[in-house]
């Protein structure tokens, strides 16, 4: 199937590791130009070096920018448009989860979490809306979590914010139609930097990586018996961002190994 991404331009937020980096690589494989950002300059540079080694410099732009800094992100958007002449797809992927219960979540933590989840959508959509409208195949795909529909008490504010974001995306899919399609993927547990950090802080430091992840998959009752790989989530992003998904908007796709319990 031709995904018709060759020569197109895709922006990936949070592209320096995990799902975002895997997506950047797949879009490059499809022949697209890829612009990506993340906050940490060192990891971003390492990601860029790896991609440039495989795909050359011409189709890649990477900048150390936070999606929560509207002015800096606006500057990034200007440079993306100046370099590639337009944008055809936006992948809103930047972010992280917060582990806390209602009792342990301070007001400040609530505000931080709501700001991260909402404005990591709002600022990039605002910055690239006009370019996506002009594309003729404009698409936004957000990386959200199963927590939006299946909240967990130990991630109370992340779950709540995720549900709100899902509502925002649905509204956007109407307001931005027909020029821009808006979809999301709902992640269950994908092996990325987030889980690597939790593995490194494990209680039993003698437990191997393989055993710790197998144990986690078993405790979480994942029907496919393992965590997902970043590339497995990235493949869905590439599909939804491409004209192969031309009649899909306002939809979500679960990438969870079957762990959801809602129908
Ligand atoms: P990683 O930690 O591997 O990647 C997260 C990326 O986002 C990094 O590049 C990080 O770089 C970047 N990032 C974080 N905050 C910002 C910011 N404010 N501005 C710009 N970039 C930022 O994790 P994943 O690949 O797993 O995460 C991708 C998305 O998937 C996230 O939104 C996450 O919450 C979501 N998700 C993941 C799940 C999982 O099981 N892995 C489950 C549910 C949702 P830097 O820190 O340098 O900015």
What is the element layout, followed by pairings?
Blueprint: E1 9-13, H1 18-29, E2 33-38, H2 41-55, E3 60-64, H3 70-84, E4 89-92, H4 107-135, E5 138-145, H5 156-175, E6 180-187, E7 190-191, H6 193-200, H7 209-219, E8 228-229, H8 230-241, E9 252-255
Parallel strand pairs: 1-2, 1-4, 2-3, 4-5, 5-6, 6-9, 7-8
Helix pairs in contact: 1-8, 3-4, 4-5
The structure holds NADPH dihydro-nicotinamide-adenine-dinucleotide phosphate (NDP).
Number of DSSP strand runs: 9
Report the uncertain regions.
none
What share of residues is helical?
Answer: 40-55%
Mean pLDDT: 97
Give the CA-based shape.
globular
Q: What structural class do helix, strand and pairing data support?
A: alpha/beta
Supply the number of helical segments.
Answer: 8
Q: Can you list the ligands bound to this structure?
A: NADPH dihydro-nicotinamide-adenine-dinucleotide phosphate
Query: Given this structure, which CATH class of the largest domain is correct?
Result: Alpha Beta
Could you state the CATH homologous superfamily of the largest domain? NAD(P)-binding Rossmann-like Domain
Rg estimate, integer Å: 18 Å
Task: Going across the biggest sheet, name each strand in turn.
Answer: 3-2-1-4-5-6-9
Sheet of most strands = 7 strands, parallel
- How far apart lie the N and C ends? 30 Å
Overall tally of structural domains: 2
Looking at the overall shape, the CATH architecture of the largest domain is 3-Layer(aba) Sandwich
Q: Find the CATH topology of the largest domain.
A: Rossmann fold
Q: From N to C, what is the helix and strand string?
A: EHEHEHEHEHEEHHEHE
Task: State which percent range the strand residues make up.
Answer: 15-25%
């Amino acid at each position: 199937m031709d995904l018709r991404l060759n020569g197109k331009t895709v922006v990936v937020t949070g592209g320096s590791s995990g799902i975002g980096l895997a997506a950047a690589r797949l879009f490059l494989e499809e022949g697209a130009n890829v612009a990506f950002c993340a906050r940490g300059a060192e990891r971003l540079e390492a990601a860029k070096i790896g991609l440039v080694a495989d795909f050359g410099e011409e189709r890649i732009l990477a900048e150390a920018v936070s999606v929560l800094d509207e002015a800096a992100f606006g500057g990034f958007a200007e440079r993306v448009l100046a370099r590639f002449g337009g944008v055809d797809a936006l992948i809103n992927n930047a972010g992280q989860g917060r582990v806390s219960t209602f009792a342990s979540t301070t007001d400040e933590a609530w505000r931080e979490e709501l700001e991260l989840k909402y404005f990591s959508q709002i600022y990039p959509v605002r910055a690239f809306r006009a370019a996506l409208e002009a594309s003729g195949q404009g698409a936004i795909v957000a990386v959200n979590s199963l927590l939006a529909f299946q909240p967990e008490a130990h991630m109370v504010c992340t779950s709540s914010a995720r549900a709100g974001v899902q509502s925002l995306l649905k509204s956007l899919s109407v307001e931005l139609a027909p020029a821009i399609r808006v979809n999301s993927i709902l992640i269950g547990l994908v092996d990325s930097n987030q889980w690597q950090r939790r593995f490194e802080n494990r209680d039993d430091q003698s437990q191997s990586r393989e055993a710790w992840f197998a144990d986690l998959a078993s405790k979480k009752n994942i029907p496919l018996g393992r965590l997902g790989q970043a590339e497995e989530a990235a493949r869905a992003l590439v599909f939804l961002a491409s004209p192969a998904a031309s009649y899909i908007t306002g939809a979500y796709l679960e990438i969870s190994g079957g762990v959801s319990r809602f129908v």
